[in-house]
Design goal:
homodimer; mainly alpha
Chain lengths: ~170, ~170
């Protein structure tokens, strides 16, 4: 499937609502953070997604579009959410994520990106040269990766409860 | 996390709405079936989930609860959805799944299952002895497995578009 800004935006738009629908009626036993940066809970993942809206995707697009001399991105702190206060409820985090995402989708629309702009380059601090189209594609796949992570975390909590069915359930294999 | 019927039902209840929210505004390019039983599309997965509601989970629970002599389950046809007409829209399939699931959650509630009943045994045609609690747990994990499958299928469509970021995105690794 070729990159298309409208198709990409369809995925970016659904993510906060999909996650709200998935998580908002679950008991804390399913979702709450253990503060373990090696083993994220659904709560931790939402914090990570909010941090990405604030510091990663659109700020990096702006670095590329500013056409400056130095287009190296600021490294992204993957575990910033663990330094934040845990007093925010999951419901509030989900709302915050939806607001931040909707603002960023609006900004993305206001850029009115041309194919030439989508080919503009930036410099990833570790991976090297990337372009704006790849940045937006990665934003999309990053969303899907974290939805996948959340359902895997939920499933693994029931590993012991499925008995011999475990063998059939790939999500419990690793 | 120990098995608990209310906690399990929370997951069963969210699945159709989560999937509707995820898929209902996506273009067919993301979701449509290629009729390939080795490579399921989101459309195919919803068909599979509906078939499970009709022939697998509750019918197997009823076999166990009937306390009959022979409690061997009917084998489950994992690709039944490919024999069905493809004329149904994805939106209609999602509605059909939500109806079927809600009916089954109601049935599950009407069973008013006791801990003793949750320990009752059935016979899986391949895996052997299982109990009712394990059947319901597997229903839960099966849902999560297929949400995971759908986001993986969506993500892989953008594999070529992320450039060097591919290395960082575990969802694209296999």
């Amino acid at each position: 499937m070729k990159f298309d800004l409208n198709r990409a935006t369809e995925i970016l738009r659904q993510t906060p609502y999909t996650l709200s629908r998935m998580l908002e009626d679950l008991s804390p036993e399913w979702t709450e953070s253990k503060g373990n940066s090696e083993n994220w809970s659904p709560y931790d993942v939402i914090g990570h997604l909010i941090h990405g809206e604030e510091t990663d995707w659109i700020p990096r697009a702006e670095i590329i579009l500013a056409l400056g001399e130095n287009r190296t991105f600021v490294p992204y702190d993957r575990i910033a959410q663990f330094q934040k206060s845990k007093k925010t409820s999951l419901a509030d985090l989900l709302t915050e994520f939806a607001h931040a995402r909707n603002n960023n989708i609006e900004k993305l629309g206001r850029f009115e990106l041309t194919p030439e702009q989508l080919a503009l380059k930036g410099m990833h601090p570790e991976l090297g040269e990337v372009n704006l189209g790849q940045l937006i594609s990665t934003w999309v796949v990053h969303d899907l990766t974290h939805i996948r992570q959340i359902v895997s975390v939920l499933a693994k909590k029931y590993t012991e409860n499925v008995g011999v069915w475990r063998e059939y359930l790939s999500i419990l294999q690793k």
